[in-house]
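Hi F.,

I've been meaning to write this up properly since the lab meeting, where we talked about keeping a consistent format for the predictions we share between groups. The idea is simple: the sequence comes first, exactly as it goes in, then the structure tokens exactly as they come out, then a line or two of notes. No screenshots and no reformatting. I'm using this chain as the first example so we have something concrete to point to.
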Amino acid sequence: MSKRVSLNVDGGTVVMLTEAPQERIDKVVKQVEDLINLVRRKDLSLSANMVYRYVMIYMSDQIVELQEMIDAAEGGNPSDKESINLRKEIQSLRQQQLQWEGRVGQLQELLLEKNTQIQELKAAK
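Output, unedited:
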């Protein structure tokens, strides 16, 4: 049976339905908080930061879930094909994560460019 879980991540509340044990939820939250700290060090704009945060929550959850499936399968003699497929899925999610990071960087540059144009127009008036 699914339970409703509210997570406080970086001052924002995320609500999800899950059947996962509390230990797994705590593990995902820790990963997300670590990623948010990384974002802060990169000094992204607030809007890009918000987009990045929600993408990272999703991607972290997916990667942890698949990693747990591999770990559980390795304990029970998994078929090599199943293990390879799960590893490919993890790699695909990591690639998507990198693509999102690139997109966020592009959006940040575009936002900076537009803000500069706005400032120039204000100065011209």
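Notes:
The chain has a mean pLDDT of 70.
Residues 80-124 form the longest helix (45 residues).

If this format works for you, I'll send the rest the same way.

G.
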